[in-house]
Amino acid sequence: MFKNLHELIAQMPDEKSCRLWLAEQRWNGKPVCPHCGFDGKIYVIEGGKKYKCGSQTCYKKFSVTVGTFLEGSNIPLNKWLMAIYICTGHKKGISSYQLGKDIGVTQKSAWFMLHRIRAIMTEKVDVQMTGIVEADETYMGRKYRSDYVGLSPEEIDYKLKTPQNKKGAVLGIVERSTGKVNVKAFSEIKRDALTDYMRDKVEEGSTLHTDESSLYRKLEHNGYGRETVIHSRKEFAKTSVTGYRVHCNNVEAFWSVMKRGIHGIYHQISYKHLQQYCDEFSFRHNHRHLKDHEKFQIVFKGLIGRLPYKELVAPKNN
Ligand SMILES: [Zn+2]
In angstroms, what is the span from residue 52 Cα to ligand 1's centroid? Predict the structure, then answer.
């Protein structure tokens, strides 16, 4: 395994070395037929570009990328690997323009690659948060665009009402004991939707630390404890009667990294993609103690681990 981008490039300078490395990662050196699951004799054909299943009922050819996000991509494998490494390693993310320049693909290709990679950076945590849980909401996403210049306030209003143009609201929750963050994008935050989401993500009996917002009232004394800091009175932390610190500083710190990232790197993002950006930033936050190559592995394993086997074996309509 490589420990930095330089080693990645040195170990995988071309398509062939990438394919060998991928085969090792995917099958631990012993190819398995993705069509029928046969793990006996598999033939290496076409100078190592492809494999052929040795099962008498199958005999199908396949490549190391079949069924993965890399299948059928015109972008060279080594560029994909570099892109994953760069995308997971940059604390505040990277723009498609910059990534394109760094790895030598068009901005359009880089944009596509980033979206594919981001889709994998979604961490599915099924464990509910517990103990002290900080919660806070903020707004981010697209602001007035330059092409609104000259439009009437009514026209701007109308534009902002369409989901892809308006700013989104985001709810962030942080578990105090682990520092893990979970971020959810809403087109607008309503109390019922927020209550349902919180009930799903936070264990009953937990104590919420929030500002004075009325959004959390349905949860208070209704399965959940709540302590508030009054931001409008410039109160940002206090010590509760039981001795622990009441604040939302961990969520606030997360917002600050995410907002700097979005304003500085992506400039503007539309509501349509807001959840993906939330996932990207929470992935980085929740894995911030890992080394870059460890983060790379997590994303990479997610990419090749999800083989749509059913899709592959389903009869094609042709
Ligand atoms: Zn087979």
Answer: 8
Higher pLDDT, 126 or 177: 177
Q: What is the pLDDT of residue 126?
A: 65
Query: What does DSSP say about strands 237-239 and 42-45: parallel, antiparallel, or unpaired?
Result: unpaired
Residue 233 makes CB contacts below 8 A (sequence gap 6+) with none
pLDDT tens column, 127-169:
899 999 999 999 886 654 555 667 777 777 776 666 555 678 8
For the chain, domains (ranges, CATH) are: 5-121+293-313 (no CATH), 132-271 (3.30.420)
Nearest one of 192, 226, 205 to 128, comparing CA atoms:
205
**Distance of CA 272 from the midpoint of ligand 1 (Å):** 40
CA of 20 to the centre of ligand 1 (A): 20
Distance 304 CA to ligand 1 centre (A): 18
The yes-or-no verdict on residue 93 having pLDDT over 90 is: no
